[in-house]
């Protein structure tokens, strides 16, 4: 029987107070890992961590590189290790490209892309010493397809794919695997703002005829962290009900 056993592993999941990140934190815990829950507000992160056995909450604004360095240090000190890094935190600041402000570009690239680079650079040092690591970057089908009104977001998510493949090549010899998961449309706060019409139109484009659930993405992440995926690195696993085919 195929089962995912992450007993003894420590996982850091950015943006895990809600949505997809919260589901990933819960699923990795069910597989036996101990998890660092991260959001911008410490009280919120601690409240979410209290719902997850063995979890600890941390505050970190992933847009701030020094915050990420401190977060990785804090997790390694608190748990004694850091084996699994899931770069999940992400934001949108949508606008048509001609109207998009430089600030909107910078905010999205800093939160979605630079954050992952800094977290990987910080977390990989310990993984290299321990000769074991799993890094999963949450990108998006928008990074593969582009999207009107999301030039900044699509660029950040496409950038994550190039980062994933480069890191996979650099760290493979140390038994550190780096993959990306590309969700389609998933029911979270991020997609709750859609109008009923936009939602219906989107649903019509999805061959499996439903929006995804955070758990659909979380299971894919857990698989990529498992021994069953030990020969998979530098890949983009699309979890979208067939949308981007
Ligand atoms: P939500 O908006 O529901 O949750 C975002 C999470 O990220 C929250 O936990 C939030 O925590 C955290 N976060 C946001 N900004 C920061 C920051 N600067 N520093 C630290 N944490 C931050 O998003 P989703 O769950 O929908 O999305 C999760 C990831 O999946 C994102 O990378 C997104 O781009 C990607 N994705 C989502 C899709 C979808 O359809 N929902 C589709 C494809 C990809 P807090 O507010 O507590 O700080």
Small molecules in complex: NADPH dihydro-nicotinamide-adenine-dinucleotide phosphate
Q: Helix- and strand-based class?
A: alpha/beta
Please estimate the helix content: 40-55%
Q: What series of H and E elements makes up the topology?
A: EHEHEHEHEHHEHHHE
Radius of gyration: 17 Å
Q: Major beta sheet, specifics?
A: 7 strands, parallel
Low-confidence stretches: none
Q: Give the strand order of the largest sheet, numbering strands 1, 2, ... along the chain.
A: 3-2-1-4-5-6-7
What is the straight-line distance between the termini?
Answer: 30 Å
Count of individual helical segments: 9
Q: What is the typical, i.e. mean, pLDDT?
A: 97
- Shape call: globular
Q: Give the strand content.
A: 5-15%
> Total number of β-strand segments?
7
